Amino acid sequence: MHPSFCPRSFKIVPFYHNPRLLCRRYLAKCFVLKDKGYGSSDFVQLIEDSGGSAVIPPRSNARNPREYDKGMYKRRNLVERFFNRMKQFRRFATRYEKTAKSFLSLVHFVAIFVWIAIS
């Protein structure tokens, strides 16, 4: 993992069965990094209508491939590796914490360990 990778903040959001509700509440001014499986035009439009930026490459068989930020998409790998390192902590992976507040404090605590290890 690259030592300069450091998320600015963490936010715990409730689980929503309806992705439209999630997008409207939490994706304004955010980059949404997903793989090609989430590249449907409806999903991308939903993100952009919510004020977010979709960084999702088009599928190889797309009729009209859209543009996306390739540099930002390459950094998606850093985010995935960061969370994989965090999942090595059993308490984080199984979410023993009962409340969102205590789980968020655990997330910060584990993130500090990961950042120290990569520095």
Could you state the order of secondary-structure elements as H and E? HEHEHHHH
Mean pLDDT across every amino acid position: 78
Major beta sheet, strand line-up: 1-2
Biggest sheet architecture: 2 strands, parallel
- Summed up, the helix count is 6
Can you count the beta strands?
A: 2
Tell me, what's the shape?
A: globular
- Helix/strand/pairing class, anyone? mainly alpha
Indicate the radius of gyration in whole angstroms: 16 Å
Distance separating the two termini:
10 Å
**Poorly predicted regions:** none
What portion of residues is helical? 40-55%
| DSSP strand content | 5-15%
Description:
This protein is mainly alpha-helical and 119 residues long. 48% of the residues lie in helices and 5% in strands. The chain contains six helices and two strands; from the N terminus they run αβαβαααα. It has a two-stranded parallel ribbon.
